[in-house]
Amino acid sequence: xxxxxxxxxxxxxxxxxxxxxxxxxxxxxxxxxxxxxxxxxxxxxxxxxxxxxxxxxxxxxxxxxxxxxxxxxxxxxxxxxxxxxxxxxxxxxxxxxxxxxxxxxxxxxxxxxxxxxxxxxxxxxxxxxxxxxxxxxxxxxxxxxxxxxxxxxxxxxxxxxxxxxxxxxxx
Length: 171
Fold this sequence. Notes:
Elements: H1 11-32, H2 48-56, H3 60-78, H4 84-104, H5 112-135, H6 145-168
Helix pairs in contact: 1-2, 1-3, 2-3, 2-6, 3-4, 4-5, 5-6
């Protein structure tokens, strides 16, 4: 059985796998805070490998649960649960998730790396829109958009490639 073949599992085993995948995503999320950032607000998003692999293997509901849990538990572990940081992460996660769902169903047959790029750029858009309407009420914040698109492409390629290795792995 592949690690992302969750639909055929009995409930107890499914919950065990979900706990493992969520713990893995949260651990990577926490460890990623120690990785140097190109800009103070930028992260690679490596914890999204799990979510991307779940979406790409058709485990949409499980991916959504892990995405929400990762964001909330990551905020709790970092001590930022009730901060704008977690709110921005949550908003970015939701928009990225919606974008990935839309484009995975798109008839152009995007690869996992393409879906990852779409998710990363969507996450950045979600965050910048929230920053504009909650924190910095100036349109000048949108001058960061080209940088955020470029960073989304780069991080999306990295995350997508890693997720592809997990999804393509044979038992």
